[in-house]
Design goal:
Distance between the termini: 26 Å
Oligomer: single chain
Structural class: mainly beta
Strand content: over 45%
Largest sheet: 9 strands, antiparallel
Radius of gyration: 28 Å
Number of strands: 44
Low-confidence stretches: 1-21
Length: 540
């Protein structure tokens, strides 16, 4: 998880001294955890107060052995974490020192299952809750269907028996009768049994599109056809006479399902596509590619000033970028501004300058990271801020490209540190630039229609989670050393779902990566210039 603290500081005048002394606020967290039978490293999410254990498919989820767990020093826990647990449902614990902090420990386990038959059309339909699997075939006689692959439990430890008690494995699948009833397969692993029902149905459709996902210079084509046949696609610009064949090596086939990404298309252009299975053709489908949306104020040339606050947009213009300057201005600090030091060869005359600082009055204050972000600074609440991340952006860029210069300082301010971290004074600070696209809504994330993700700097549960369910694409750059000269960077976006269309985009740049914990260096500086979004694979 990458987070960003935006300096907001409003110092109240001293009041009367009372005899009641409140307990200090000490955030309790899980710092590290280990367990047997893991498929990868555990994920600790301090904002959500959640631990996720990725299990190997052969691990018994009803008997997960947690071997180690460290929590905040001096904290107590409501029940033992180390030991054997049934994680088919999450383990809920409460960590406490002066306040209680509920944490959740859950397991994620992927057991790949396979059921395919000869002559299958399209992909297998699975219902894991009801333990059913259905396939479609292009022939009507279902009395002798040859099963080509069957896996209904964890590899190497699963026993499968047919309704008549005959044991099944990959060497004796053979032919099954699906004409009158759905065969019941008894599956046994970890000493427990499950009943699975398999079904086969006839379809007269030999090939059809499953979905088309147009991007700016490409499109994802997905279709279902008859397994064992030649499967592929053709496409053309709408109105053209000749079809273009998608190269066979570009088509990924999985049984009767096949997919290809067609590249080299033009933005905002209508195309036609057809899928085929041998000589059978699907209906012709039409799609239109997305626009290559530009990044507003991408050269950081537009700046304005009002009541001593510097804004990263022109006066009267529609804001796209913002910074923490509204908060830091309360103590006459500017942590983001335009400076006449553009990168060599820039068509512009200014760059963005981010400066981490200790924002204080009479020595009392908080560390603030220099920052600029896509979104809006919404409000100041006491000494904390409310920021709404993101702007509407329904398209699929491939990368963020730009220029950066970074001056790295040694950490001299520590408020707190992330779970599992051992940061200390003297360690080197880091800068960060990241881009995210997703389908966040203001109803769930408490922001606005324009900027839906609301971050409250006093509440870690609201911090941005790069692994959140609504993040569709993400990429980041860590700056771990001083770069005295400007350098060009390209952050490629990892698209986690090529079918979902994002609704919003956010970009965050910070001179101090852990500024949201009030931790960083007052000597860290970042310069940014000439950002652009890359949409064409040919430009990567």
């Amino acid at each position: 998880m990458k987070r960003l603290w935006f300096c907001i500081l409003t110092l109240a005048s001293a009041g009367c001294i009372e005899n009641d002394v409140p307990y200090p606020v000490v955030e309790c967290s899980v710092k590290s955890i280990a367990a047997e039978g893991l498929a990868g490293d555990p994920t600790i999410d301090p904002a959500a107060r959640k631990v996720t254990l990725p299990l190997e498919e052969t691990t018994d989820i009803e008997a997960v052995e947690i071997t180690e767990c460290t929590i905040t020093d001096e904290a107590s826990v409501s029940q033992a974490i180390v030991g054997c647990h049934d994680l088919t449902t999450p383990l809920y614990v409460t960590l406490s020192i002066y306040q209680d902090y509920p944490w959740t420990i859950e397991a994620q386990q992927d057991i790949p299952r396979v059921f395919t038959v000869e002559g299958q059309v399209g992909a297998t339909e699975w219902n894991l809750v009801d333990r059913t699997a259905k396939v479609y075939v292009g022939f009507e006689d279902l009395s002798q269907v040859r099963v080509t692959a069957l896996k209904l439990g964890p590899r190497d430890i699963t026993k499968m028996t047919y309704i008549d008690g005959a044991e099944l494995d990959e060497t004796n699948l053979g032919q099954l009768n699906f004409s009158n009833a759905d065969p019941r397969i008894t599956v046994i692993y970890h000493g427990r049994s499950e009943d699975w029902h398999l079904s086969v149905e006839y379809t007269d459709v030999k090939v059809m599109f499953a979905s088309i996902s147009p991007w700016t210079h490409s499109a994802w084509l997905r279709a279902d056809g008859l397994s064992g046949t030649k499967l592929g696609f053709r496409y053309r610009e709408a109105g053209a006479e000749e079809w273009t064949e998608v190269p066979e090596e570009s088509v990924a086939v999985d049984g009767g399902s096949f997919v290809a990404q067609v590249r080299g298309l033009r933005p905002e252009t209508a195309y036609e596509a057809v899928a085929y299975s041998n000589d059978d053709l699907s209906a012709v489908e039409t799609f239109t590619t997305e626009a290559a949306l530009p990044l507003p104020n991408s050269g950081f040339e537009e700046w304005s000033k009002s009541s001593s606050i510097v804004y990263p947009y022109a006066e009267g213009a529609q804001p796209f970028w913002d910074s923490g300057n509204k908060g830091s201005s309360t103590v006459k600090k500017t942590i983001c501004e335009g400076v006449p030091l553009p990168r060599p060869g820039s068509p512009g005359i200014t760059a963005a300058y981010l400066e981490s600082t200790f924002a204080s009055v009479a020595g009392i204050g908080k560390f603030a990271a220099g920052n600029i972000f896509v979104g809006e600074y919404a409000a100041t609440e006491g000494t904390n801020g409310v920021i709404n991340f993101g702007r509407k952006f329904a398209t699929h860029p491939l990368a963020l490209r730009g220029w950066v210069k970074y001056s790295q300082g040694a950490i001299d301010k520590i408020g707190s540190v992330p779970a599992g971290s051992d940061l200390k004074v003297g360690d080197m600070d880091e800068g960060t630039i990241y881009i995210a696209l997703g389908t966040w809504t203001p109803e769930e994330y408490n922001g606005t229609e324009e900027s839906p993700i609301q971050i409250r700097t006093k509440d870690v549960k609201t911090f941005f989670n790069k692994n959140g369910k609504d993040v569709v694409g993400y990429g980041e750059l860590a700056l771990t050393e001083t770069t005295s000269d400007w350098r060009e960077f390209t952050i490629e976006i990892e698209w986690r779902d090529t079918e979902r269309v994002p609704t919003h985009m956010m970009i965050v740049c910070s001179a101090s990566k852990y500024g949201d914990y009030f931790t960083g260096s007052t000597q860290s500086r970042m310069w940014l210039d000439d950002f652009e979004l890359i949409y064409d694979h040919a430009d990567l």
